[in-house]
Amino acid sequence: MYELLQQLRSESALTKNEYKIPFLLEKLRMHDEATYFHSVRVANILDDFAKSINIEIEKRKIIKNSALIHDIGKIFINSNLLQKQGKLSELEWEELKKHALYSDLIVKELEIDDVDYSMILHHHENIDGSGYIAGLKNYDISMNVRMIRIVDSFEAMTAKRAYAKAISVELALEELSACKHFYDQELVTKFQSFVQVQ
Ligand SMILES: [Fe+2]
Predict the structure, then answer these.
(1) Exposure of 46 by Cβ count < 10 A (0-12 exposed, 13-18 middle, 19+ buried)?
(2) What's the 102 CA to ligand 1 centre distance in angstroms?
(3) What pTM value is reported for the model?
(4) Å from CA of 73 to ligand 1 middle
């Protein structure tokens, strides 16, 4: 893991700061195309949602950049595991969960600018503290993180994938309100209004 990180660092050493995110996205696309497309879609939906609730452009740039590389740590996870169909063993699940930590290590090691590190490390935290990496609760989870949590799940539920059926937008929105223990419901209501006018 440390070696892979060092390798990535030396490969990106000559890359200008503004090209480091595209550099990482290309790595992700080569490793796991589905995660690459997921990340791009999450970033675009999140940017439009943030715009709809009047978040200013400078903050949106940071939100979008962070969303683009929130799952970048998956490049250190075996692609067979990423693409595995069916139920994961407890060990496999524990391994998969590490991607948030790996994403955090990568963005810090490569000194990526204009990102919100907490969105990357904490994008799987739940409102009731049952999420990972830290089990943060309620307003200990920043607004940016609570936003990406919603959009990340929404995209995962509605996207067509080779190995899983997509569910309809309506059903996905219902799911977001049903999972009160996962998502900030005030933001879910705003997200539902945003999706409905799209
Ligand atoms: Fe993730």
Answers:
(1) buried
(2) 10
(3) 0.95
(4) 9
**Rounded distance, CA 26 to CA 36, Å?**
8
> CA–CA separation, 142 vs 122, rounded Å?
9
**120 CA distance to ligand 1 centroid (A)?**
8
Q: Are 125 and 181 in contact (CB under 8 A)?
A: no
* 157 closest CA partner among 133, 181, 173, 180: 173
Range of the domain at 91: 2-196
Per-residue pLDDT tens for 52-64? 999 999 999 999 9
Is the dihedral angle over the CA atoms 44, 185, 135, 78 positive or is it negative? negative
* Residue ranges of the chain with per-residue pLDDT less than 50: none
**pLDDT attached to residue 135:** 98
Asked if 39 and 26 count as a contact pair (C-beta separation under 8 A), the reply is: no
Spatial separation of the C-alpha atoms in residues 66 and 53, rounded to whole Å: 18
Distance from the CA of 193 to the center of ligand 1, in angstroms? 25
The alpha carbon of 30 and the centre of ligand 1 are apart by a number of angstroms equal to 17
Question: Domain total for the chain?
Answer: 1
CATH of the domain at 171: 1.10.3210.10
